[in-house]
Fold this protein.
Amino acid sequence: MIRELFGVPFFINKYRTNFGLEVMENVFYTYAYLREDGTPYYIGKGKGKRAYDRKRHSAYVPSRNRILILKKNLTEEEAFKHEIYMISVFGRKDLETGILYNLTDGGDGPSGYVYTEEQRKRMGELRRGKKRPNHSKIMKKKNHLQVVNENKIKELRKNCPPEKIAELYTEGKTLKEIKSILGCGMVWIRKSLDEMEVKIRHRNDYGNPMDDKEVRDKISQKAIERGAWSGENNPNYGEGTCRDKIIQRTKEVNTGNQNWKYRKQKHQ
C-alpha cells in the first residue's frame, strides 16, 4: 500500500502474523509531527505510545490530529532506515537543508540495546564530514542562565535573608509590608517562609484596604453619589435586617404557615 506526504511516496506494510513471532518483532513505526498548515516539522521512530509521549520528547508534541503515523509494523532496522530516509527528504533546519527541527539524521534512537562495533562504525561513516548541530552554544546558554539564577539567589539571601523575613512575619507584618521594608519580591518572601517552615496565616495576606478609614469613606461617598440605597431610600428601611427576613421566611416555609402578604407582593 503506497501513500504520499507532500509528494513524497512511502510504503505502508500490511500486518503480518507468522505464528506470532514476526508480530513481536514488527512493533516499530515512524511518525511525523505536522504544523497547522500540514507541513511536517519533526520525524521520529518508536513503538507503543512513543509518538504521543509528551514527557520523554525533545520536540513539541502537537495534538493527536496533527500526528501522522507514516509506516507501522516495522522491525527496528526498517524503522531506522525509514526515519533516515524521511529526514533526508525534508531536510533539517539547523543545517539549513530543510524544514525539520530534528537535530540528527535519524537512525540513532536508543531502544534498550547496545550498538555493536560494526553499527557504530557504520553510523560514524554516515556522519563523517557533515556539519554537526550547534549543541555547544545551546548548552553554554543553559549554563549561563543557571549561573545567573544562582547569583540572584545568593544576592537575595544576602540582602533579604529568610531568617529576617520569618522574624518580621512572626512579629505580625504582612507580606506586602515585608516587601516594602526589604525590597524583595513576593515569590522570594513565600519561598523563604516555606524554607523556614513558617505557615502563612491565610492566602490573601496582603493587608485589607478596608481597614483604612479613608478608603471606607471614599467608597461610601461614591456609593451615595451614584444613588445607592441608603437610609430611607433602602426598601428594607424600618423593617429589620435582611437576615431577620430570611429567618422569618424560612420558618414560614418549614411550618407551612406562609404569609399571604409576602406572597402577594412577590407575584405583583
Summary: The longest helix spans residues 135-159. Confidence is low (pLDDT under 50) at residues 14-23, 262-268. The radius of gyration is 35 Å. The beta strands are 2-5, 8-11, 28-34, 40-47, 67-74.
